Amino acid sequence: MNWKLLSAERKLGSAPMKSERSLKRFTAEDIPAIATLLSLSTLRPALPSRQEFSSSLNKEESMFPEYRSLISQLKTTHPRFQSLFEKHNELDHKIIQMETGDGQSSPELATLKKEKLLLKDEMYKILQHESQQSR
What we know:
This protein is mainly α. It has two domains: 3-13 and 20-43, no CATH class; 50-133, no CATH class. The chain is 73% helix and 0% strand. The protein contains seven helices and no strands. Helix 5 (68-77) crosses helix 6 (79-101). The radius of gyration is 22 Å and the shape is elongated.
């Protein structure tokens, strides 16, 4: 990335443009660099938000808090549970992306949510079964 792109990126990332005066920080030289940055930003994969990232890290804590330690154990020892857990997380990310993308509800979104609930139900059954076995 050349210095013009870096300069424009810094200017774009600095204070929000709330007034006409804030637009004065851009010069005519910045326009091609800004156009390049905007085109590059549409090519970059969307990074998860801080909330999405932290929610995926704490999934076992928030989904079934009473089974926190059992979930951690089953994710490494129970292949079926591990598969369900990973698929659930994938669906969760897809749903979040769809909801934040256009804000519209669609039949596909409803289907993904139902599939996610079915996975959660199946994981819960495994958790109950494994919990009973360990008593």
